[in-house]
UniProtKB/TrEMBL annotation:
<dbReference type="InterPro" id="IPR014980">
    <property type="entry name" value="DOPA_dioxygen"/>
</dbReference>
<dbReference type="InterPro" id="IPR023389">
    <property type="entry name" value="DOPA-like_sf"/>
</dbReference>
<protein>
    <recommendedName>
        <fullName>DOPA 4,5-dioxygenase</fullName>
    </recommendedName>
</protein>
<dbReference type="Pfam" id="PF08883">
    <property type="entry name" value="DOPA_dioxygen"/>
</dbReference>
Amino acid sequence: TFEIKEYHFHIYFFQNNSHQVKKAKELFEKVQVLVEKDHRFKVKPLRVNLSPVGPHPTGSYEVWCPIERWITLNRGELNVLIHPLTTQAYVDHTTRSAFLGERSPIDVEGMFGYEEDEISSQYPKLKLGYAAEN
């Protein structure tokens, strides 16, 4: 067995709904500010996807943060896919995943059977999660 040390939070919104796009961008900006001001948030979201990308069925963006509580309290009406980061992307996005809000179907066909040899940290320079010194 292994210890899960990193998670992704995928913020979902209906990209053709201007109200939801506005709410998603507001939450995105809140996270950007927290990275600058709060030691618990280390990574700025890279981009807002205004159309489906990869397995995600709607507009979305990814947040790497150690604090589920913050997302739970601040997501508003937006749905959030939470999944661990391990060597098994398919299992991480299916049986090991959870949703805050409504569950959305995701297209994981491209992940089926894909497995990495070892777990690696997404942001090793931060020395958090899998890159943390024991």
